Amino acid sequence: MLKPVFKNLKLENPLIMAPMCGYTDRIYRKILRKHGAALCHTEMVSSASLVRGKDKGSKIMLLDNDEHPVAVQLFGSLPEEMSQAAKMVEQAGADCISINFGCPVPKVIKSNSGAALLKNPDKIFAITAAVVKNTGLPVIPKIRLGWDNNSINVIEVAERIQDAGASALVVHARTRSQGYSGEADWRQIALVKNFLKIPVIGNGDLFDPIQIYEKMQRSGVDAVMLGRGALGNPWIFSRSLCYLESGRLLPKPSTDEIIILLKKHLNQAFEWKGLPGLREMRKHCMYYCKGLPQAAALRAQINQCDKMEDLDFVFDQYLKSLKAQTVFAEIRS
Ligand SMILES: Cc1cc2nc3c(=O)[nH]c(=O)nc-3n(C[C@H](O)[C@H](O)[C@H](O)COP(=O)(O)O)c2cc1C
């Protein structure tokens, strides 16, 4: 089993959870860690909001004692401001700093941050070097292949990031103009791995344990980062770990297991954030319910609930009705 080392941070295994806005808050990070993720990322936080003391920034940086190791992800366009923010991240107790050079969202691009910086490798170098200089933590920038298909510059950007002193590099194998569509091009990740001396973490379209094993073997990466494949599906970490260790493919979780974890997740969200927390959970619920029997009807019912008791009732009724259907089918057969 690979145990990647990023500067002074040694991971237990090579499976990392991506930063995901709206999803990787501290509750879900802890769930993912319990299921085997070796390192989780916060949602991205703007260096400007941290340095100016805005609430949103400090809220994202709330880390729990029992979730380490955890990486905080920064985005911004000013080297000096990013380096100040890096110090704040270190003081908040993070184990690692990610820098976002890949976000395609128009608001982020307009502020010359995220993927906009792929057009400016000098600026990427300056930001990475400034962050590395002002922190003792490992710094792990995250990039895409380039701005669009006509301007793929992943090798050049990767080299500048290595020269700036980064401890590892995450490559999401899509261009900015692809957004999240099309296929991630893992051949490009293999090229970067071949070229760099620092560890390379591959990201893009990892949805099952066998595919994760194969992508790791073929590209030679030091670790992989999972995104959408781990939403509503923390078991992808435990199942992939088992497969990497023993070649044994564990079964997918049962409907009961999924509902039990979803209820726990909802309870924790409610305890932390109250009613708004339950509403925020609707997008998580959509992922947990994917592939369950009568998922559409279940999701519609969940979306109408504004109280924990109502949700408990919906889940109890759902499980009872599935059991009744099974018994009925057995009697008939
Ligand atoms: C809803 C959503 C939110 C995301 N938020 C972030 C983010 O805050 N920072 C970041 O670097 N990437 C973000 N990403 C990109 C993911 O980290 C990841 O690179 C991308 O989803 C590709 O991996 P996947 O194919 O395994 O999903 C986000 C992606 C999605 C779908």
In words, what does this structure look like?
The chain has 333 residues and is an alpha/beta fold. It is 49% helix and 14% strand. It has helices spanning 26-34, 47-51, 55-60, 79-91, 106-110, 121-133, 154-163, 186-195, 209-219, 235-246, 255-273, 275-289, 295-303, 308-332; strands at residues 5-6, 9-10, 15-17, 39-46, 70-75, 96-101, 139-144, 169-172, 200-203, 223-226. The strands form two sheets. The chain has an eight-stranded parallel barrel with strand order 3-4-5-6-7-8-9-10, surrounded by seven helices. Strands 1-2 form a two-stranded antiparallel sheet. The radius of gyration is 21 Å and the shape is globular. The protein binds flavin mononucleotide (FMN). Flavin mononucleotide binds at residues 18-22, 43-44, 73, 100, 102-103, 142, 172, 180, 184, 203-206, 226-229. Flavin mononucleotide binds next to strand 4.
Topology (elements, then pairings):
Layout: E1 5-6, E2 9-10, E3 15-17, H1 26-34, E4 39-46, H2 47-51, H3 55-60, E5 70-75, H4 79-91, E6 96-101, H5 106-110, H6 121-133, E7 139-144, H7 154-163, E8 169-172, H8 186-195, E9 200-203, H9 209-219, E10 223-226, H10 235-246, H11 255-273, H12 275-289, H13 295-303, H14 308-332
Parallel strand pairs: 3-4, 3-10, 4-5, 5-6, 6-7, 7-8, 8-9, 9-10
Antiparallel strand pairs: 1-2
Helix pairs in contact: 4-6, 6-7, 7-8, 9-10, 11-12, 11-14, 12-13
The structure holds flavin mononucleotide.
Flavin mononucleotide binds next to β4.
